[in-house]
């Protein structure tokens, strides 16, 4: 069974520091038991390049006089804890100093070899050099000596490199270093060579050891990378710059990959990796692990061991507060599959660009509306969804267009925005509109044809707009231009010119089971977060989906709702946490905020045999959440089954037999 309570134990230690002087097998084991840890990634080689065990192919840390890796593996085995082994691959500071010919170069500038120009940091090595051979020897040595259950390789990515070896090999392959496409082609060739060589180094000695190559991100649609891993670990430290929206977006895509095990990786740190003495509030770690399991993932919590190698018990007391709850929930997690009503065709999978704002904005709007969704790429099946969202960017291939047409013909509903269905200045699918080109004014104004919280008026839209004519579609919002664009010679007031009521066009339309929004609404929501963007999206989703939702709940905007199916039962997870910004752009969780009058609904195909609220023994945080929790199970052609509760931990529900409620955390 895939372990769901993992720790990723960092250990990147300068060669002058004492190592292992306070390591104790018993203390190491006690920390893992206090933390309710069932798997821990221990270390063979760190970013500094040192090995933490006797080695014939590398150098042991100068201050280490025993086999620290072997001692950790033995300690884990004795108490039934799995222990994959970590090897730093992209960084090796020792070899960076010894082998200038292995340096990764990020430009043709002969002096531009430092990745972090203005800070002291590690340096990258190039996988197209002799370094890859050395790395593979290090992997094989670990496999032969220790036969670990898995290998974790870190700091991995497809990178364009301009070192002498890469320049020579590009030329020999008939590729032009001055051509961007050729550079990308060679970077992929180098990355593929790395993946094949390192995987072979593991498989030469084990047919079933897990393998994960950590790049900090799972690129959507990149199966050359995805398929090189036995499982996926979604690195997402909310306080380290990722934020609390990042993990749900990553998980929503990985869920679509099929039967793959995956982890949500957060950290115990206040900020991010490498932080000695940094701790987050226990409520934050409880929420983050709950968010992982509600999204179908296991959990991994990052820690960093002190050079003296004594486990910090405050850290494992903190981890234990979260993992004791995860352990209690595991009967509702094993084999559970997340339910999705909505599919989002990822903008990243089309453009190849990471951190596409269209994806980020769509994810945020779906979370805030408590909708059940997955992100997909163009190779995936759309037919399982009730609604397909195409966010902002152009470039869908002809095969995908045909899949979308088939989806619509079979009753599927579609929301397209921006240029997502525009090619050669025309819509590739008949949506009852005619494309009229990019709008020349910025920003524009939205005039809704529906009630809004601030009334029907003109709302500024800071994003691109594509003009179109409505040829039979229902207009649900109009676009108004400003009187003019702002320039040095021609401006009005502090920001932009006011709306011109006489210069008005259709802005968003619905035609049957299709809708089109002319604005790049998702990209703009990621950047600006205006409520008018959310109201437009929500209105259109409600018009298209109506009550055809598998589950919903009236949680606040930061609430999260997911529904999973596990055999003959369904599980509804409810999460809420109040986040705040501390310091500069550090989003944290501290307080448990009570919620009242929470209403939940689950839609079933047939009457369930029971509806249950799970009460777990160690669930203090959720008491405030369930103070006034009511829920309904809707079955077609029958009256809703309703219930309420004043205590408990969550909801689980099944379209066949049982519905359970699991308010995961507040």
Topology:
Elements: E1 5-10, H1 25-34, E2 39-45, H2 68-78, E3 85-88, H3 93-98, H4 130-146, E4 150-154, H5 164-172, H6 180-203, E5 210-214, H7 223-226, E6 232-235, H8 246-254, E7 262-267, H9 282-294, E8 298-304, H10 313-329, E9 337-338, E10 342-345, H11 347-351, H12 357-368, E11 373-376, E12 387-390, H13 398-409, E13 413-417, E14 422-423, E15 426-427, E16 433-438, E17 444-448, E18 459-461, E19 466-470, E20 474-482, E21 499-511, E22 514-517, H14 521-527, H15 531-545, E23 551-553, E24 560-566, E25 569-575, E26 579-582, E27 586-589, E28 598-603, E29 610-614, E30 629-634, E31 641-645, E32 650-653, E33 658-665
Parallel strand pairs: 1-2, 1-8, 2-3, 3-4, 4-5, 6-7, 7-8, 10-11, 10-12, 12-13, 13-22, 25-33, 28-30, 29-33
Antiparallel strand pairs: 9-24, 14-15, 16-19, 17-18, 17-20, 20-21, 21-22, 23-28, 24-25, 26-27, 29-32, 30-31, 32-33
């Amino acid at each position: 069974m895939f372990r769901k309570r993992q720790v990723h134990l960092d250990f990147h230690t300068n060669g002058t520091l004492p190592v292992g002087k306070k390591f104790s097998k018993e203390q190491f084991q006690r920390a893992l038991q206090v933390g309710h840890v069932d798997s821990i990634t221990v270390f063979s080689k760190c970013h500094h390049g040192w090995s933490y065990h006797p080695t014939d192919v590398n150098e042991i840390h100068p201050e280490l006089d025993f086999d620290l890796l072997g001692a950790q593996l033995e300690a884990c085995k004795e108490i039934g804890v799995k222990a994959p082994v970590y090897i730093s691959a992209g960084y090796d500071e020792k070899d960076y100093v010894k082998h200038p010919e292995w340096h990764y170069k990020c430009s043709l500038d002969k002096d531009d070899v430092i990745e972090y120009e203005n800070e002291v940091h590690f340096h990258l090595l190039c996988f197209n050099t002799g370094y890859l051979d050395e790395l593979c020897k290090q992997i094989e040595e670990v496999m032969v000596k220790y036969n670990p259950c898995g290998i974790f390789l870190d700091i991995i990515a497809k990178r364009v490199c301009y070192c002498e070896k890469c320049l020579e090999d590009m030329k020999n392959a008939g590729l032009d270093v001055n051509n961007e496409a050729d550079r990308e082609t060679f970077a992929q060739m180098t990355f593929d060579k790395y993946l094949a060589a390192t995987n072979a180094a593991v498989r030469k000695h084990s047919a079933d050891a897990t393998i994960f190559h950590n790049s900090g991100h799972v690129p959507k649609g990149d199966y050359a990378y995805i398929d090189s891993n036995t499982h996926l670990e979604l690195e997402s430290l909310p306080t380290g710059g990722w934020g609390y929206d990042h993990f749900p977006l990553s998980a929503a895509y990985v869920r679509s990959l099929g039967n793959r095990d995956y982890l949500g990786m957060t950290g115990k740190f206040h900020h991010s990796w490498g932080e000695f003495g940094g701790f987050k509030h226990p409520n934050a770690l409880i929420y983050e692990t709950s968010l992982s399991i509600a999204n179908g993932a296991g959990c991994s919590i990052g820690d960093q061991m002190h050079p003296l190698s004594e486990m910090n018990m405050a850290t494992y007391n903190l981890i234990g507060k979260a993992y004791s709850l995860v352990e209690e929930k595991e009967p509702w997690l094993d084999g559970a599959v997340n339910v999705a009503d909505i599919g989002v065709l990822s903008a990243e999978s089309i453009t190849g660009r990471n951190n596409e704002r269209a994806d980020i904005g769509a994810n945020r709007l779906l979370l805030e509306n408590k909708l059940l969704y997955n992100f997909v790429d163009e190779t995936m099946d759309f037919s399982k969804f009730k609604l397909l969202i195409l966010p902002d960017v152009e470039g869908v291939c002809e095969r995908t267009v045909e899949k979308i047409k088939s989806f619509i013909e079979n009753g599927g509903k579609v929301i397209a925005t921006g240029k997502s269905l525009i090619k050669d200045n025309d819509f590739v699918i008949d949506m009852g509109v005619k494309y009229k080109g990019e709008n020349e004014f910025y920003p524009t104004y939205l005039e809704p044809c529906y009630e809004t919280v601030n009334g029907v008026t003109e709302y500024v839209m800071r994003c691109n707009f594509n003009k179109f004519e409505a040829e039979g579609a229902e207009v649900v919002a109009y676009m108004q231009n400003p009187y003019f664009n702002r320039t040095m010679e021609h401006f009005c007031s502090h920001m932009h010119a006011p709306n011109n009521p006489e210069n008005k066009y259709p802005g968003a339309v619905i035609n049957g089971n299709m809708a089109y929004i002319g604005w790049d609404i998702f990209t703009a929501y990621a950047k600006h977060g205006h409520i008018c963007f959310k109201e437009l999206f929500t209105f259109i989703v409600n018009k298209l989906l109506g009550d055809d939702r598998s589950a919903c709940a009236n949680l606040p905007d930061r609430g999260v709702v997911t529904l999973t199916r596990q055999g003959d039962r369904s599980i509804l997870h409810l999460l809420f946490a109040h986040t705040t910004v501390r310091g500069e752009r550090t989003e944290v969780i501290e307080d448990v905020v009570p919620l009242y009058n929470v209403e939940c609904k689950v839609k079933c195909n047939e009457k369930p045999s029971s509806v249950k609220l799970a009460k777990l023994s160690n669930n203090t945080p959720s008491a405030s959440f369930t103070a006034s929790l009511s829920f309904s199970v809707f079955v077609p052609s029958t009256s809703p089954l309703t219930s309420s509760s004043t205590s408990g931990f969550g909801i689980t529900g099944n379209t066949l037999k049982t519905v359970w409620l699991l308010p995961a955390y507040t």
